[in-house]
Amino acid sequence: MRKRSIKNTRVNTEVQRELSNILRGGIKDPRVAPWTSVVAAEVAPDLKTCKVYVSVLGDQKAQEDTLAGLESAVGYIRRELARTLNMRNTPEIRFVLDQSIEYGVNMSRKIDEVTKTLKAEGEENA
What we know:
The protein is α+β, with helices and mostly antiparallel strands and 126 residues long. It has one domain: K homology (KH) domain (GMP Synthetase, Chain A, domain 3, 2-Layer Sandwich), CATH 3.30.300. The protein has helices at 6-25, 60-72, 74-84, 100-125; strands at 36-43, 49-56, 92-97. Helix 1 (6-25) packs across helix 3 (74-84). The longest helix has 26 residues, at 100-125. The relative contact order is 0.15. The model has no long low-confidence stretch (mean pLDDT 86).
């Protein structure tokens, strides 16, 4: 099976949607931050493993605590995923922290600083 097949894309989307629902409504662990979102899910073509990218709004400690809470609840999450999805195999889930949103905010902040500096220099020269 090709890695970018339509079936694999549909499975990835459905797993991402169901994991978002499970995280929103089912996790009672206080370590998991309330602003945790599933950015992407990559299920292997053989449906045995799944890499889940999560984004956590908060500082470094909140991100580490959320990952620890999700790792401890992986059995519950996998069971709920098996209950809601009709798949031959329920994949083993591995959570990965996604830094892309934080990186984008940081780059936007730097661009704003540079544009302010350029505007200030332009006003001084005028």
